[in-house]
Structures are given as structure tokens and as C-alpha cells.
Amino acid sequence: MPEKIAWINVPKDEEEKQSKPLSRLGSSLSAGLSSSPSKRFSISSLASISRQSLPLSLSSSPRRPKGSSLSSDYEDAQCHLALEEQTIETAIRRTQLSRQNALRSTIRDPHNPSNRTGGEVLEGPSQRLSDMSLSTDSSDSLDFSQPSAFLIPPLHDPSPPTVADFNIQLPLSLPPPHLRLSSINVDDDDDDDEEDEEEPIFGVSLESDHEPDQDQDQDLTMLPPCSSTRRRSSASAVVLQKALRGNLRKMSVVFNSLLTPEKRAVRKVRELSRDKGSYFGSLVQEYLSYMGEGAGTQELKENLSLYKARTPQEMGVADALTPDSVAIEKIRNKFQAMCKKYSPEKEVTILLRICKLIYTIMEDNSGRMYGADDFLPMLTYVLAQCDMPQLDNEILYMMELLDPSLLHGEGGYYLTSAYGAMSLIKNFKEDQAARVLSAETRDTLHQWHRRRTTQRSNYLRVALQELNSGCTAKTLQVRPYATVEDVCQLCARKFKVLDPESYGLFLQMEGSSQQLAPDTHPQKIKAELHSRPEAAPFLFVYRRVANSGTLSSATPNLNHLDTTPDPIDNLNHLSADLSEPSSEPGVGSDLGPPTQPPQQRLHL
Amino acid sequence: MATAGAAGGGKTFSFKVVLLGEGCVGKTSLVLRYCENKFNDKHITTLQASFLTKKLNITGKRVNLAIWDTAGQERFHALGPIYYRDSNGAILVYDITDEDSFQKVKNWVKELRKMLGNEICLCIVGNKIDLDKDRHVSVEDAESYAESVGAKHYHTSAKLNKGIEELFLDLCKRMMETAQLEERAKGNGASQSASSRRGVQIVDDEPQAMPAGGCCSSG
């Protein structure tokens, strides 16, 4: 069982982590581009992106046996080209010998693929070249006594058809060399490394794919240019690459001219998404690095299988009916359908359907209504039974891209529940029974919340107190590191104070009023006050400084405030390691643990 | 997020309310009673009782409530923050026959005040008053505790449908008040804020002691 799971899951993970978010991002971007959201446009771009960029993912995962139906015309084109492209075959033959041994050793492993696609392969080598090119699975199921030429094409073929595909919206010669390099490196990232032993075939195909991809696959360049060292380079791939390059270049020129304006726009968006300097780019990049950090995956898998052994009762379900294996299978299918959707809204719709199904099963026509006490444990149980580690990323994806207004509705609720259930599973330890969210989860959540509510947390409410006219309060936008001096200047402007030098910022609480020293940070003070166990009401008041001398009296108290050990520090000290890909344009990279925006900390 | 969204002429408030409390204290029954019983139950949700919505009309203003139920079992406690973040109100339910459940409420209050400050309206609800003969949490204790933390206390029975309507209505009014004050502060500020939000009184010249507790301390 475990082997099977590993086999099935790994390619998906791969896909999830690297290609899908990218292509999906790309597609959602393209959808957002057209001023009138044209469905057709987004769909077609989506399809073409995934086709051209995911030759592997289209069929390498067993869950997409019908991937070919979606791309049948694509396959046709591919087939033609694959057959006509003499060069490729020549090159393939040339590399045949050098590869043969390696491939044989790798193929003969226990990860026998599901044979869903196996049938097609038997029809005849030359005819099915394209098929194999689409499917690493099918190549697996070949009789190994066949010449490995048939095994190699799958690894390299995707390129020419990709070029031939008229859906390609990207210029084939575009990516500048440095981008290519970095992107290629990323694909071979540590995750890949980890899985290498388990998934040699996949690893090989990935690698060899990259070489020709350098010339054409634009999608790769979407990958974050994060650092990781080039692992190895396969000699045969290089040979192939050389052989292919000339022809591909020529073709790329031709197809480049076929680009439509929309496609150029998509291209532009992609370029933008690579630019970490832009807000958009930083969002995308952060998201990608988010998805890239797959360290927890293995643990998640283990925990899933641990959790799987538990009964719903153990998880806290009181007396509801539990989904049987048939129902679980049904739910798993729905989840798989959900994963294939690109729009987070659509995904959430499916999630809601799944939840409804779970409720229906629980209810069992009894008419009883179940609240979270029963539902959340059941959802956790179902998620564990489904045993789909890729759901973790999927849920993150939805939380990341779902429209904020929807986050607070029903979809948001059940998404939150799914996230919670998944966190419980992820952090499941037999001994501690998930008493606390793991640091990682908290941090992820914290970052997520910061991203989604950036604006909110930068406000400070300041009241203007005038001797004769009572009090006016304004909510000002005050950055976390703004000093009292900054705030005073802002107040003078906002409240139209004519003699700002005679005004000061005061903290008023519990019957006392203290002037704040110019170099203290109001947001930090606010955060400290909020984090006190007994939160006393307080207010920032901008008013005329009565006499001299107030200032000194205020300082000691506030020093005390500033140095109070932050009671919720334990929630945050971890964010240091992950805070680097911050998307906040304002706060940026200078986010250190000690100086972290205090207000944001509080809103977990 | 969830505060007041002005829609055209009439204003519509959208509030998120989170239900917290130990398992078996009757959170779900409470909210089901409220959402299913009276009014028309045309809430959008077709799902069950974990997430419920309610549309109200309070003094001519439309209010949309989204009620988020949480799992009360200890092992789910850690998930609290993902549910209560951005909430405008929290209903903390305990069972009057179960002192432990009251203790849990205290823990939640502490956590909420710590994480959300006074921005959130707290309601502490002693449920199952139909079982008053088995009461283990005294009314005085509960009410004085609530007052001390700036929360309001309610006595309800989901079984007898007692006190529930009042609870939600009251909470809505308080959340509206909070939202309006916030709105005013955000907008042109000005005169009304002499009675500044959250019960904070500022009188010129003599900084006064502010009443303990937050928005919920009054009334």
C-alpha cells in the first residue's frame, strides 16, 4: 500500500508544486487581463498554457487518464510532428545507447504505474510515439525488452509539438539566458531531489525535458529565480539539445509572428510576475516560494496515514453516520475534480458540494442538523481517508486567491474548516494530540493573514483634543515604524493645526495621560497595549502640550511598555525565517523579528 | 473586511460572529434555534448548522449576520484563531450545569482580548437555563465576570427558545454601534466623537478615567 501511495502521489505533488500553480496563475492572470472577463479567453489560455508547459503533467499522473481527450488535437499535431521530425529521431537514436542502461535500471522499480494508459501503447511503436511523449506512465508499461528508443521519445518529444501547437502564445525565443538558467534550476529543486530514488523515471524525464525547454518552454521561466544548484546534467540531453536547437529556432521565429495581442499581453503579465520589484511580481513570487517549500510534504504523508487509522469517534464525532469506502471514493473523486479547476471560486464550489455530501451522509435522513462539533471532526476524518497530500497545497491556493469578499461567506467558512482539518492532520502527533498548531502552520497563517489584510493593520486612531471644541478623532494610516514625530506631523496636516510645535501626541488610558516621546512608535505601543492580558482601553490623543515637564514624566512608563516581553512572541519568533518573501510593499524586506510590525502580529 | 458595507442609499451591515464554547454546551442548538425558528429561513446556505446566515432589519438598517460555529473539543482549540479572525462579535457559550465549560469561556475571553483587543463585541451566554435546578455556575459569578471583561451576559435556553432572540438582537445593535463609530471616525470624524466609540469619553482639559472594559461594557 505505501508504495502505491507514494507512486501515485509523487507526480501529483510535482505537478502541483511546480507546474500547476504556475499555469493556473498564468491563466487567472490572463483572465483578469481582458477588461470584460471573457470566459472563452481564459479557458483557452488556460488550456494552452497547461498543454504547452505541462507535457509531463498532462499524463504523468495517473489521475488524468482522460487528459488526452482534452488535448486530442494537440496530440494529433504532436503526432505529425513527431513523425516528421527526422532530426529528433536521429538524435534519439544517437542517445539511445548511452541512455539505455540508465533507463533500464530505473524503469525496473516497484513503482509500477497504474495501467490505465497502458493499453494504448501496445498499438505500435511508431504510431504511438506521441502517446508516449505525453505519458511517462505508458512508457513504463511497455515491455522492457523493446528498444529504449521508444522510451526516450517521451522524454524529448514534447518540444516539437509544443512548438507546433498554435495555441502557443509565447515567443519561443524569449527567455533571456539568465532567466532560463534560474528557472531550470528551480525545477530541479530539492523536492525533486528527495523523490529521486522513488521516482527515477520521473526525474529523468524532467531533467531531459528541460534541455529542449530552454529553447521554448516559456512557462518554466515563470518559476521563481530562487537559488538552488544545478544538480546534474545529462550528457545525452545535451546532445539532443544541440540536435534540436537549430530546427526549433527556425520554427520559433515563424510562430513568434503568429502571436496575437492578447497573447502578448499574457506574456507581458508573465514578465511582470517575474519582477520581484513590482507589487504583482512580489505576490506571485511569494506565492511560488510558498508552494515551493515542500518540506512538510513527507510529514504530511506520514501523518495522513497515521490519521487514516483513526475512527471518526476518536476524532470527536459523536454519533453521526460515517462515510463508507464507497462514499470516500466518491468524495475523493470530487476532490480530484476540484484540484483540476483553475478558478479558486470554482474550487470552493466543489468544496461546498463535498461538504454537503458529508453532511448528507452524517444526517442519514434523520433530519438532524450538525454543527461544527460534529462536522469538523468528520471533515478531518474524511480528509484523512481521502489521503490526498496535494489537497494541502490546493487549499492554500484557494485561500490565497479566493476573492476576499468570499472569504467571509459560506465558502470561506468551509475553506477555513478544510484548512483547519488539514493543519490538524499535518501537525498530528500521537502524543500531543495536536494541542497547538505547529509553528509552521501558525506562521503560514500569520503570513497569510498579513497578506490579506495588509491595509487594515496600518491604521491608528488619533483624537484631536481642542480646548474649546471637544474632540475629533481620525483614523490615520500609520506605518508600523512611524515614530511619534511622524504621527505628529501627520496629525498637524490632517487636523489642520497651525502651530504644530505646541502640540504633542499623548497616550490616554486609565485616567492618565502621558505625552509620548518623539522617537517612540505608536503602532508598537498600541500593539503592546493590546497584548496585555487585561486590555485596558486607551486612546491616542493629539493635543496642545500644556506645560513643559509632561514629557519627562511620560517616558519611563513607556519604556516599560516597550520592553515588556511580548506575551505572544512565541507566535511570531518563527516568522523570522519565513518573513523574507513578504509581499507588503510598504514593509518590505526589513522585517526583522524584533521590529516586526506589532499591530500585524496581533491579528493572527 | 466585515464591518459595514454601505450599499447605495440604505446601509447594509455585514457582520461575522463566531460561536465559541466547549462541545455539548449547545452552541449549535442555540444558533439553529435562532436561524431556523422565526423569521423566514431563507438563508442562502443549504448546508447544515456549522455556518449560518441571518438577515435582519434593525431600525431600518439591514444587517447580514454570518455565524461561524466552531468545534468545541479540546483538540480543536488550536484552530480558534482561523475562525475568529476578523470577527465583529463572539458568542461564548457555556452550560450552566457545567463549571468546566464556564472556565473554557474565560480562556476564550482571554485569548480573544489578547488577539483582537477591544475591537470585538463579546457575549457570554449561559445556556440550558431550563436545567436551573442543576446549576453549577452562579448567576452572580457569571455576570460579574462578564462585566469585568467588558462582555455582556445572557441567559438562554435553546430547548425552550428563551433569551436567544434578545441575545442576537442586542449583539447586532452593539456591533452596529461599533461599526458606525468606526465609520464616522474614518469619514469626516467631527462632532459626535465627543462620545467617542467604545465608551471612551474624552472631555477637554480633564482627562477622565475611562470606563473599564470595551465596547460591550455599557448597558
List keywords for this structure.
heterodimer, A: mainly alpha, Glutathione S-transferase Yfyf (Class Pi), Chain A, domain 2, 5 strands, B: alpha/beta, Rossmann fold, disordered N terminus
In short:
Chain A is mostly helical and 604 residues long. Chain A has 31 helices and five strands. Chain B has a domain of 153 residues: Rossmann fold, CATH 3.40.50.
Question: Care to describe what's here?
Answer:
The complex is a heterodimer of chains A (604) and B (219). Chain A has 604 residues and is mostly helical. Among the domains of chain A are: 294-455, Glutathione S-transferase Yfyf (Class Pi), Chain A, domain 2; 459-544, Phosphatidylinositol 3-kinase Catalytic Subunit, Chain A, domain 1 (Ubiquitin-like (UB roll)), CATH 3.10.20. In chain A, 59% of the residues lie in helices and 6% in strands. Chain A has helices at residues 2-33, 39-53, 57-60, 67-70, 72-84, 86-107, 118-121, 129-134, 136-141, 152-156, 159-164, 177-187, 190-195, 200-216, 235-256, 261-274, 279-292, 297-308, 325-340, 344-363, 372-386, 390-401, 404-407, 410-426, 439-452, 484-494, 522-531, 550-563, 569-572, 575-578, 598-602; strands at residues 459-466, 470-477, 503-509, 512-515, 538-544. Chain A has a 5-stranded mixed beta sheet with strand order 2-1-5-3-4. The longest helix of chain A has 32 residues, at 2-33. Mean pLDDT of chain A is 60; it is low at 1-84, 101-234, 430-435 and 548-604. Chain B is of the alpha/beta class. Chain B has a domain at 12-164: P-loop containing nucleotide triphosphate hydrolases (Rossmann fold), CATH 3.40.50.300. Helices cover 30% and strands 22% of the residues of chain B. Chain B contains 5 helices and 7 strands; from the N terminus they run ββαββαβαβαβα. In chain B, strands 1, 2, 3, 4, 5, 6 and 7 form a 7-stranded mixed beta sheet that branches. Chain B is globular and about 50 Å long. Chain B starts with a strand and ends in a 33-residue tail after the last helix. The model of chain B is unreliable at 1-9, 38-45 and 189-219 (pLDDT under 50). The interface between A and B is large, with 72 and 71 residues.
